[in-house]
Amino acid sequence: MQVLEAYKPFEIQEIELSEWKQRPVKNNFFELVLILDGEGTQCINYNEYPYGKGSIFLLPPLKCHSFTIEKPSKFVFLKFNDSFFKTINRNTIDRNEWFKEAAYILSNYNQLPGDIIKKEADRQHIERLIDMILQESRGFGEESISLITSLMTSVLEILIRNVKRGSHYEVLQNNADERITKMLTYINENINKTELLKIENLAEVFRMSSTYVSEFFKKQVNMPLREYIIKAKLKLVEIRLLNSDFTLTEIADELSFTDVSHLSKTFKRYTGTSIREFKSNGEYMLLKRSACAV
Prior knowledge:
This protein is α+β, with helices and mostly antiparallel strands. It has helices at residues 95-108, 120-138, 144-165, 178-189, 199-205, 210-221, 225-243, 248-254, 260-271, 275-281; strands at 10-17, 30-44, 47-51, 56-59, 65-80. Helix 1 (95-108) crosses helix 3 and helix 1 (95-108) crosses helix 7 (225-243). The chain is globular, with a radius of gyration of 20 Å.
């Protein structure tokens, strides 16, 4: 196993294996995995998907993922650490905008297995970017941080594009009305814009009657619209609490909670724990899929 030296604000690992060994590292944010060579099966939450040379996966923050290796495989793991988006790097990237985009990936990618890249051109872009990252990291020095960070943000941009392009949302029916995917995308892209999430606006955007919007949504998602919006916001709260240095006031303002007290009470109502306890435990709650338990 070859592990390149880990460093902030990211970690890069290049590993060649003939048998999968459980990695001791817990994902606090998420990792991108590129298969440089080999064949086998990826497993996330006990769902399996074949992989081969060039496959690109996203590993969200969960413990139950693994690879069954059928032919010796070479993996590259790119891990975005917490500090990638924190204040210390504000001179390198706009932490606010990039954190919002990265949080969008994490909160909307539903943690099922499968190749995340939808267009072959994007796959080639990521392969070239990762090759540059690996070359730069092998001769790593302080002067490399800025360049590698820029390359990593380019990788993020491509990931965002593909998550938005794919249908990663969980709906109640396999043959769900295609309007629900568009509606879920619209809601999550505008989650901090209260006016756009009102029933009247959703009815206008999706050409439904105001009385039908809530009924349609619940039938497709098996959850009331208001509850979905609150939980979508709280998933982003979880990400910000564990992976950024945003203050509670900043989080409340950004996600349109009345104030910190409103945020705290809502968080405890839906998670069953206080924000202080949640940060102390350091584990996602709403963001995890229930399928992760046997």
